[in-house]
Amino acid sequence: MRPRFDYGDEVRVLRNVRNDGTYPGEPTGALLIRRGSTGFVRDVGTFLQDQIIYTVHFLEDDRLVGCRDEELQPAADPWTPSRFETRDKVAARLALGRGGRVLVEQGRVGDVVRVLRGPADTETFGEVAYQVQFPGCSLLQVPESALDPAPGPPQARDPATAANAIPPAANHPPGINSPGIKSQDTEQNP
Asked: Which position among 28, 66, 104, 112 has the lowest Cβ density within 10 Å, counted as fewest Cβ atoms?
């Protein structure tokens, strides 16, 4: 078991880091570091003698956070940012359908269950899609271009990460057979 990163290496966190109860001064479950944030390795240690733990200093948030090896990648590696995160409320930018049948009306609000990132390379970002649960509908896989932030009160987000928000995708033409919509139910028709 050898560490992939050394002291001073710049790394990017691959998933949101929440307080598991060990970070002082923050409630359990509070978002500590947003996925995609970069920091520098300050220390390398182990947990239970079988997991490498890196103490990473995230300068933008001025926080030292312990991260497991699988939660990090080199900061220079390609990364695909996303507009939304798990648990965010989103609204359908257009009617979402499959097989000529409308599944979700335009403007309907749902919850992001999972963020799906396509592979990125050094030239371009990968595609981003989300698994979204709309009321009364099976779980849908929806491309980022077909979603808007849900209307209503502002979502509770760390103001430090608001500056890193990705601008809305270009308007997508409305239509019942929306491209890229995949249902997560038993039907497997595209």
From this structure: 28
Dihedral sign of CA atoms 120, 121, 125, 127 in order: negative
Residue that the structure tokens 């003698």 belong to: 49
List phi, psi (to 5°) of 145: -65, -15
Going by C-alpha positions, the residue among 13, 54, 48, 5 that lies closest to residue 34 is 13
Contact 160, 60 (CB under 8 A): yes
- pTM over 0.90? The answer is no
Q: Tell me the HSE value of 155 on the side-chain side, using a 13 A CA sphere.
A: 20
Does 10-74 carry CATH code 2.70.98?
A: no
Q: What DSSP letter does each residue of 51-85 carry, written as one string?
A: EEEEEEEETTTTEEEEEEGGGEEETTS-----S--
For 128-152, write each residue's pLDDT tens digit. 889 999 998 889 999 988 999 998 7
Whole-angstrom distance, CA of residue 106 vs CA of residue 104: 7
Give the contacts of 47 (CB within 8 A, at least 6 positions apart).
53
Residue whose C-alpha is closest to residue 142's, from 105, 163, 115: 115
**Using CB atoms within 10 A of its CB, is residue 40 exposed (0-12), middle (13-18) or buried (19+)?**
middle
Where are the chain's structural domains? 10-74, 89-183
Instruction: Using pLDDT thresholds of 50, 70 and 90, give the confidence band for residue 126.
Output: low
